[in-house]
Please model this.
Amino acid sequence: MQNFFSLLKREFQLFWQNSVLRMLFIGAPLLYAILLGYVYGKGKVTELPILVIDYDQTEMSAKAIEMFNDDEVIYVSKVLYDQNDIEKIAIDQEANAVVIIPKDFQKMVFTKKYPEITTIVNTANILTANYASTAIQVCLGTLKAGVQMETLRKQGVPEKLISSQYEPFKTTFLKKYNRSTNYMYYLWPGVLSAVLQQVMLLALALSFASEFENGTFTHLVQKSNSIIQMMSIKIIPYFVMSFGVWLIYWFFTFYFRIPFFENLPELTFVAGIFILSVSFIGILVSILIPSQLKATEILMVIATPSFILSGFSWPLSQMPNWVQGIANIIPLTHFLKAFRVLIIEEGTLSQVKSPIFNMILIGVICAILSYLALYFKSKKALKSA
Model:
């Protein structure tokens, strides 16, 4: 029994002496608990942008717009007066819905001609689509009730009979993009992109760390002509293999009957930038942390919460600014935004310039840091050879 407790004490000492293990075992659960608490702390989505196309431009349409802005869930980011370039504007404004108020709306309401307000809901993100559509229905329902009650009062109808008389106008909701609101179409690509990022990070975590641990780094330096060559030979095999994974994903879209056919060449181009950006993060950690286990553990900490922080499952706008800052240094955040615009919303490559630039910026910064770290490690290895 004494031996047992002695070994148990030793195990606790070993644990406490390992700073990485200590950080992961104690720090990571604490960090994720705090992080998730902030990410989902609001509990509901607020201030979602919508567009309004106001063909009527009357007091009643202005009242509808005012009601949208008074709602806590939605706000009118832009009022338009025609549908020219509406799809481009909707993507640029990140609109969750487009409300179309028809011409002569107020006049038809007062003459009991039953006009129709059409709402086009962007179901690329099912969560925000549900919140936005519900909020719009509530606002329009309140407007209906107000118009109805005022009209019937003028007619002398008793208050008890007012609600059963007539509807002043009807509303129609049209779903755009993911029309079936299929959660598979929405979640599946995002999760697989997160998996691809994690696989790349973990693989490249071993690239230089294994050389340091196995004592072969000096041999690699002597055999290589330059720092850039060393970085290239580590990245290229994984870059090529990642496109094999990309093809597998593409074949699975047929197997699962997922209708992602538009803008595939453009998305593949963006995916290449994404892979390079992730690769430079991986090799940077691998150079700085000369231990396979520790490099893997650190990149696991980075990769694990990335899907939560990416804004794919919960809007970035609903997170605190400091959480958004963390999210914006993760390549997955920008890739998933580009994916949504190109594939689900069927936008153009020019509309994803910002995500592309951000991924390039992350990759360039990590590449420069990797180059400098590898340069000094190479000089040190040659001196000791």
In short: The chain has a mean pLDDT of 81. The chain has two domains: 48-176, 183-384. The radius of gyration is 28 Å.
